[in-house]
Amino acid sequence: MKEIDVLGQLWQVIDDRFANPRPGSYIAGLAADAKGIDRILEKVGEEATEFIISVKNKDPDRIISEAADLQFHLLVALRAAGISYSDLLDELSARRR
What we know:
- The chain is mostly helical.
- The protein has one domain: Helix Hairpins, CATH 1.10.287.1080.
- It has helices at residues 2-19, 26-32, 37-56, 60-80, 85-96.
- Helix 3 packs antiparallel against helix 4.
- The longest helix has 21 residues, at 60-80.
- It is globular.
């Protein structure tokens, strides 16, 4: 399934940037921000708001873009909170039963 592969690959990059910060990396910058998890959660809130507005405005291109931004920042927040990608997938799988 393409979607799972893309999200799994994205998770691997996020996890790597947390474990092995690289200069100039956006993810490493968020992880190292002096505001800590608060900065990451601010981004999640910002992207969620932008997603909601794009849906309300019925702008398909913007909806897709903002959904991708929200998904990305949500994964960053999960990693910052110490939640693994497999924990997330396990929960989603359990909900299908």
